[in-house]
Amino acid sequence: MNIEQLKKIFDERYGSLPEAVYSSPGRVNLIGEHTDYNGGFVLPGAIDKGITLAFKVNEISKIRLYSVDYDESTEFGLAEADKPAQGWAKYVFGVIRELAKRGKTVSGFDAAFYGDVPLGAGLSSSAALESAFAFALNDVFALNVDSFELAKIGQATEHNYVGVKCGIMDQFASIFGKKGNLIRLDCRSLEYKYVPFNPVGYKVVLIDSCVKHELVNNPYNRRRESCETAAAAIRKRHPEVEFLRDASMDMLKEVKNEINDEDYMRAEFVIGEVKRLLDACDALEKDDYATVGKKMYETHEGLSKLYEVSCEELDFLNDCAKKYGVTGSRIMGGGFGGCTINLVEESKYDNFIAKTTVDYKTKFNIAPKVYDVVISDGARKAE
Ligand code: ADP
Ligand code: MG
Fold first, then answer.
1. Catalytic annotation present for 69
2. How far from chain centre, in Å, is Cα 223?
3. In sequence order, what DSSP letters do the residues of 258-307 get, joined into one string?
């Protein structure tokens, strides 16, 4: 699918050509996992895969949508009671309603869209969808919503219309993404800084384990509680420590006898991860990708051994990366399945992909999926 084909589809369906085309990407996170709820940093970047939508205001005070990928259409009104039935349409409806809650109203419109972010693989196709519509509506209706608020509107859509209690990283990266840059986002203050990312001679590739382990007893909540317990113990001696992000490894050691071993391990990972991310940013400023890669491997190790959110499949993929000379590799996302993100020299890429595909298939009888990504611009008007 390309923009010309999309415009043709739009024309056939709605009887005239669209007045504008917009695009917004998915994202990767190079390093900084489970740091967001500890007040720490993340380091996402927008990718060269996203949602593209063709748009035109209509005269019927209704929203008409067509999803090219699902070959499904829907029609709904602008009021809170008009929530559409289709899962994919709720993202668009949510954006419209969140705008309305902020006093920003739109009129009826027609839109057709397609995407090339793999769904549910951890690349945030949902943020791409929300951000594409938030950005488009803000532009077409001249709503004067700043970029930050656009990201928050996407996040609020997930919270209030989809039921996913996500952080702000995905929508933030989709809106603020910039070619040749990652974004170091401070999850406490929401301050951000672009960090150069020009890995000449390297590729970034995701290997999708294609597994998602069923989680019992909400392991994520338990980890959050461990982090809070450790932070509270440290805070008794160091009142300035609001989150683990503020703590040092020495501070953690002081409370070793006051918290249990599990809480200690979780905190050790988080404190290490905050430092690793900052070290990786320093290395990126110097184009030192060997160090960045080393930090990625350390993150994987921590996620696997200390935070215990890996699984056999992800550890296997990480071992393959080591075996085939990949510069850096780690689990991306919450864990227990999904993708590894790999920084690999171009000269080693073909061999890595070919061998890993065979090894993984042999071991688990699943063909892993491979997604090449290039760090790219955020939400934009494409035409
Ligand atoms: P992800 O990790 O990719 O964000 P989610 O489950 O949060 O996974 O979001 C995936 C959902 O977003 C899909 O089920 C669908 O409702 C919507 N979506 C994403 N991309 C598209 C697309 N190209 N066309 C239609 N709906 C899409
Ligand atoms: Mg999502």
1. no
2. 20
3. TS-HHHHHHHHHHHHHHHHHHHHHHHHHTT-HHHHHHHHHHHHHHHHHTS
Does residue 60 form part of some domain?
Answer: yes
Residue with tokens 């959050």: 224
Neighbours of 303 (CB within 10 A): 25
Q: What type of residue sits at position 256?
A: K
CB neighbourhood size of 54 (10 A): 29
71 CB-near residues (< 8 Å, 6+ apart): none
Number of structural domains in the chain? 1
CATH number for the domain that contains residue 169: 3.30.230.10
Q: Write out the two tokens for 332.
A: 């991306």
Of the listed ligands, the closest to the CA of 155 is 2
Are 125 and 117 contacting, i.e. CB atoms less than 8 angstroms apart?
yes
* Pocket-testing residue among 1, 92, 113, 126, ligand 1, by greatest number of atoms within 8 A of Cβ: 126
**C-alpha of residue 24 to centroid of ligand 1, in Å:** 13
Residue whose C-alpha is closest to residue 277's, from 38, 27, 22, 9: 38
The whole domain housing 36 covers: 3-197+377-381
Q: Which two structure tokens, joined as six digits, stand for 208?
A: 């999708």
The separation between CA 138 and the C-alpha centre of its own chain, rounded to angstroms, equals 22
Q: Please state, in angstroms and rounded to a whole number, the distance separating the CA atoms of residues 54 and 47.
A: 20
Could you tell me what percent of the chain has a pLDDT over 90? 97
Tell me if the pTM is above 0.70.
yes
Residues 198, 29: Cα–Cα separation, whole Å: 15
SS3 86: coil
Tell me: the pLDDT tens digits for 143-188? 999 999 999 999 999 999 999 988 999 999 999 999 999 999 999 9
Distance in Å, CA 119 to ligand 1 centroid: 5
77 belongs to a structural domain: yes
- pLDDT tens track for 248-298: 999 999 999 999 999 999 999 999 999 999 999 999 999 999 999 999 999
Residue 216 located in a structural domain: no
- Coil/strand/helix, residue 59: coil
Asked whether residue 209 is domain-assigned, the answer is: no
